Amino acid sequence: MTQLTTIDTNNYAAMAKAMGIANEGKTSAKSSSLARMRIHHSPIMGTAEVKGKNVNVEVVEGGTYKLEIPDGPTHYASSVKFRPFMQRFMYKRYVQGGGNSPNRFIKSIMADTLNIDLKDNDGGFNCGKPAGYIADFKSLPEKTQDLIKQIKRVRVVLGTVELVDAVDENGNEVQVDETPFIWEIENRDAFKSVGTLFTKLNKMKRFPVQHTMTGNSEERKLPNGNSFYLPIVSLDLSNTLELTDKEQDTFGDFLSWVENYNEYIINAYAEKATSKNDEELDDLNINDVVDIEVDEEVA
């Protein structure tokens, strides 16, 4: 094995490993949590006194952004201003529980493209989606079609966010500092619309972290009359933000978070893949094994 005998300051990764500090400061994905941002589709109801009577009123409207703080409160705002540091892609599939099995999500690792197979925490790849490009979806078996429809492509945005006129779950105004967040965008239309902004930045040779985006929402109606909301995100190109040591540190934290998350998924993949292999061996019927007789060579 080749040994490093000189200190190369231009190759930190190799030197950190050689010096035994590469894993210092790393934590597991579960203990390294980020606030999660998403759209809250249903209004939150409360009560208010009107003419001496308590009546039900909307204290938080549907279509607001909510920011869920790990082990803390959840805040709401009709508009958000965020600074995207990076994006990643992943697959996600919801699995309905039954009997003693709880509902769960199958999730893949995060990568900078979906054009590769991504290990998932169920011991497979792509949350069950077949590898490669599917030229004729209708030609697939119906069971495979149904499975693919359950699998979401997810655009993951990591950055810092400011809530505009934030409130709590009771509709009371609250002050919320700029917060590091993760936003998993899985709606198909939202996936594309937010993606156009990153594509625009790439064509202009601009880094996402140099600009801010503003998020609002737009109501859409379902056939049954219910509503859901899509994010409407705009990009501010009029102002280019400076990068300070604070942004450099935050960017490093996001990279570490993704690395820890992927390590968690890969470990789950290995455990589930081994378990599936053991189950296949347990189901193997020894009587189905065919012995092949080989004629002895004649001298």
Helix content estimate: 10-25%
* Gyration radius over CA: 25 Å
Query: Approximately how much beta-strand content do the residues carry?
Result: 25-35%
Average pLDDT taken over every residue: 87
Order of helices and strands: HEEEEEEEHEEHEEH
> What is the terminal-to-terminal distance?
47 Å
* Gross morphology: globular
Biggest beta sheet attributes: 9 strands, mixed
The chain-level structural class is alpha+beta
What are the low-pLDDT stretches, counting only 5+ consecutive residues below 50? 27-31, 289-299
Helix count? 4
Structural commentary:
The protein has 299 residues and is an alpha+beta fold. The chain is 24% helix and 31% strand. The chain is built from four helices and eleven strands; from the N terminus they run αβββββββαββαββα. Strands 1, 4, 5, 6, 7, 8, 9, 10 and 11 form a nine-stranded mixed β-sheet that branches. Strands 2-3 form a two-stranded antiparallel sheet. Strand 2 (44-50) and strand 3 form a beta hairpin. The two termini are 47 Å apart.
